[in-house]
Design brief:
The protein is built from twelve helices and five strands. The protein is mostly helical. The strands form two sheets. The protein has a three-stranded antiparallel β-sheet with strand order 3-4-5. The N terminus and C terminus are likely disordered. It binds a DNA duplex through helix 3 and helix 6.
Length: 239
DNA sequence: AAAGCTTACAACCGCCTGAAT
DNA sequence: GATTCAGGCGGTTGTAAGCTT
């Protein structure tokens, strides 16, 4: 795989900043300047080093490509194991994960994950769905008559909102849609209610958003919203 | 050999946060 | 306390190379 001169053709934006692939000359200017003056103050780096690049662009180039000590080459099986383990623990906290993989950047790990694992998320079989849906249902009934999402992160809140319309009816609002999906009557305790319940949309929730709920649940104090997320998680909804 | 698909990854964008004013 | 701004982070995009059909 060719590194370097790929992607966007070099051009300038409305503000006159250069965009696109970095040239060897630009790399040299940036490296020399940072080696001399140290990291930080990226906006002044771009000016002082004679680079017509934004501070953000300079920082990114340095951190992901020019910084000394960066590893090159394929992720090793050991590194892959660490990535899998830490991702299970923290979700898409790429910079945090990168701290445990010396020489690897968050960008590299993120790209690796998306390429190798993003599309290989386990799809639950029907039996699993039934079990988990039953748990969700029971937990919601037992613990909350009115589930608030006010304490959830915006991301998590975007995924799912559950509310009780009356004592016996619940509805799920996926992605804050205009038309919430109504659950069958609470009196049903068998599997039949899950059969009738159109959950496909819920099961297709993007993996990152599931992780967002997981993270929210793991980090926040118990509250209705996060507590519910914990229940979802414990019930196996996030896999 | 050519077309289409997949993989890899550099680089951008938008949002968030914390420090400075 | 409000505003501004730089830096950091995660998500996304664009494109070349490799692979498959």
């Amino acid at each position: 795989m060719v590194r370097g001169m790929m992607g966007w053709g070099a051009n300038t934006n409305e503000q006159g900043w250069r965009k696109g692939p970095w040239t060897p000359e630009e790399d040299k200017l940036l490296s020399e300047y940072v080696n001399l003056h140290g990291e930080g103050r990226w906006s002044s780096v771009s000016r002082c080093a004679g680079l017509n690049r934004t501070g953000k662009s300079c920082r990114l180039r340095w951190v992901n490509y020019l910084r000394p000590g960066l590893k090159r080459g394929h992720i090793t099986p050991q590194e892959e194991g660490i990535i899998i383990e830490l991702h299970a623990l923290w979700g898409n906290k790429w910079s945090t994960i990168a701290r445990y993989l010396p020489g690897r950047t968050d960008n590299e790990i993120k790209n690796y994950w998306r390429t190798h694992f993003k599309t290989k998320v386990k799809v639950p079989v029907k039996q699993d769905k039934k079990r988990i849906l039953r748990q969700m249902r029971n937990q919601t009934q037992q613990n909350y008559t009115n589930v608030s999402t006010t304490d959830m992160s915006p991301q998590a809140e975007e995924v799912i909102m559950i509310k009780s319309d009356n004592d016996n009816m619940f509805s799920i609002n996926y992605n804050n849609d205009e038309d919430p999906v109504e659950l069958p009557p609470v009196t049903t305790t068998s599997d039949t209610w899950t059969e009738n319940f159109p959950m496909d949309g819920l099961w297709n929730i993007d993996d990152e958003l599931k992780v967002a709920i997981q993270n929210q649940a793991a980090t926040a104090n118990c509250s209705y919203g996060t507590d519910y997320a914990v229940n979802l998680y414990n019930g196996g909804f996030i896999f």
